[in-house]
Amino acid sequence: MANYKTCKECDAGLLDDDIAIYRKLVHRGADEFLCIDCLGKQLGCTREKIERLIQYYRESGQCTLFR
Ligand SMILES: [Zn+2]
After folding, report:
1. How far apart are the CA of 33 and the centre of ligand 1, in A?
2. What predicted TM-score, i.e. pTM, was given to this entire model?
3. Cα of 22 to ligand 1 centre, how many Å?
4. Whether the Cβ atoms of residue 18 and residue 51 lie closer than 8 Å to each other
5. I want to staple 39 with a disulfide (CB 3.0 to 4.6 A). Which of 5, 10, 34, 53 is the partner?
6. Integer distance in angstroms from the first to the last C-alpha of the chain?
7. Cα angle: 34, vertex 35, 37; to 5 degrees
8. Where are the domains of the chain?
């Protein structure tokens, strides 16, 4: 079932950025998501790295997921 409000792992509340980066890195058409912490665990990288990626995509202005 689609869930845009909470992380499917830990039930943390999701921000727009959490959803956007999950779509960017995992699955464009996803309808359930991980928070940044759980996504980092799944991808084997840190939360800081993901936050930097979010900032990068936002500043580049080229990705339609980050507006
Ligand atoms: Zn989570």
Report:
1. 8
2. 0.88
3. 12
4. no
5. 34
6. 26
7. 115
8. 3-60
